[in-house]
Amino acid sequence: MILPPALCKGSRLAVIAPSGPFDRALLFRAMGWISPHFKLVFEPGLFARDGLFAGSDHRRRAELERWVGNPDVDALVVARGGHGLIRITSAIDWGALRERPAWLVGFSDATLLHLEAWKAGVASLHAANLASLGRSDLQAREAWLKALMEPMYPRTLEGQSWTRGRVRGPLVGGNLTLLFAASAARRLELPSGCILAIEDIQETSYRVDRMLASLKIAGHFDKVAGFAVGEFTDCSAGPHGVPTNHVLRSELLPLGVPVVAELPFGHGRNNQPLLIGPDAELDGSTGTLRLGNS
Q1: Consecutive 10-residue averages of pLDDT for the chain (294 residues)
Q2: Options 3.50.30.60, 3.40.50.300, 3.40.47.10, 3.10.180.10; which CATH number does 155-291 get?
Q3: Residue 246: active-site member
Q4: Any catalytic annotation for residue 108?
Q5: CATH class for the region spanning 12-149
Q6: Inter-residue contact 139 to 294 (CB < 8 Å)
Q7: Which of 7, 92, 113, 131 is the most buried (most CB within 10 A)?
Q8: Which three-class secondary structure state does DSSP give residue 122?
C-alpha cells in the first residue's frame, strides 16, 4: 500500500466537485479556514450545476482526469457528496494515481474514489467533504487537518462491542449504499482479511437489510475479517417498525467475526477521519478501532 506524502504548510489541494452541487457559502467558509495552511486550486466549472450533478458528466470527468496523477497537487478534496461519481469513475485512468500518489479526501459518494484508490494500491482519507467542513466546529476541523499532515499518527475511535475478538487488516469501505452500487456495477473488490467500515444516511431498515444481504450473497463478506460500523444517520425503522440496528445485528453477527458499532464516523456531526488502505486494528473486546502506527 502506497502512502501519499504527508501534507505540509503550502501543499497544493485541488478542490473537485465530481458528484452533486453544493452550498457555496459552506464551501467558501471551509476554504477560508484551510487557506492559511494549504494552497487551494480549482477549475471554474467547479460551480456548475446540471440537475442532480455539479455539471455534466463530461465536465466532472474532465476535472478528475486533470487532477488524478497531476504532479502539481498533493491532494484532491471533494466539495460535496450527493450523486454522480458512479457515472464517471470507470472512465478514469487510476493507474495515474499509483504513478503519482496524492490524497483523495471525502466521504459519502466519495466512497467510490476510495474504492478506486485501494484497487490502485494507494491510501486515501475518508473524511469530511469541504461543505461538511464548512459547518464543522474547530475540533473537527483540526482533526481533519492533522489527518492530512500526520496521516499515520496513532489514535483510537471508541464504539460499542457487538461481538468479541481482535483482528488487524487493511481498513476499507465507506458508505453502504455506494458499496452496494459498486458491487452491482462490478467495481467492488475487497482485499482478503480486511476490516470493512460501513455507514449510511436516510435509508430505511429494510433497504439496509437488502444491501447487506446482497453483498453477502455476492461473496464480498467472505473476505471481511471484521466490521467497523459507523453512524446510520436518520435511518428509519420503516413501515414494519424494525430498527436499523436490529437489521445490522441480524446480518453481521452470524458471520462470526468481530463487530464494533456506533463508531464516530459517517454523516453525523462527529465524522472522524479514517485512513483507508493501511492496516488498522479492530478490538471487539474493548469496542475500539485503532488507526495509524498503534
Answers
A1: 96 97 95 96 94 96 96 97 94 96 98 97 98 93 96 97 97 98 96 98 97 98 98 93 96 97 94 97 97 84
A2: 3.50.30.60
A3: no
A4: yes
A5: alpha beta
A6: no
A7: 113
A8: strand
